[in-house]
Amino acid sequence: MIEIEVEMDSDVLAAESARTAKWRFQAEANDEAERLLSSQPMPSPAEEINMNDL
Q: What predicted TM-score, i.e. pTM, was given to this entire model?
């Protein structure tokens, strides 16, 4: 019984660590996407119309 509980504890810790790493990676990816989008100049409505005509 004690060995099983120790193994389950380590599995839970491993799962929590993986979840935290995934969350951190997603947060960094979101930050990078926001940075890239905010650095792009937004086209004016006239430019959008011209681009759609192509």
A: 0.53
